[in-house]
Hints:
Strands 1, 2, 3, 4, 5, 6 and 7 form a 7-stranded mixed β-sheet that branches. Helices cover 32% and strands 25% of the residues. It is an alpha/beta fold. It is found in: Cytoplasm.
Amino acid sequence: MAQLYLASSSPRRRELLTQIGLPFHIVPASIDETPESGESAHAYVERLARGKAQAGLNFLAQRADVCVLGADTAVVLDGRILGKPVDRDDALAMLQALSGREHEVLTAVAVADRDRCEARVVSSRVVFREVSVEEAERYWETGEPQDKAGGYAIQGLAAVFVSRVEGSYSAVVGLPLCETSALLADFSIPSWQS
């Protein structure tokens, strides 16, 4: 069986992969995450997930029997990708834009070995209650939103802003576990239940 590598520095993705009982190693996968002109959010997250998996494979060039998992998550509001906030004002603007509204969270997962790369994109809907400016400011001060897509972490303090989730909770956190398990099984990497 091929050794599994996770091409991500995200502690959330590490925790989620551990949750389903899979042994893995971490591999660096630094890629340019700038959206291309006219690129849809769906195409964007899939391209980045595939790119991270491929970057991980390239890093492991001397290893033959490996399988690399890459993933990417985007928060999408009115067709616009909300990336990681560049500063306090950007984060507060994002939280105010999300306040009282529904938005989409797209997470792509890609698995690659030396022969192929397969990917899945999972769409979830998240509804925020009204978030006051004061709440958004207090949230920023916690430091949590600084490196999160859309300026919030559903698995953290921002859970109090979320009134409803439709779809995969784990995908909103950063890795759709049901789809990831199925994809890895296609590469002969079984989950705990196999």
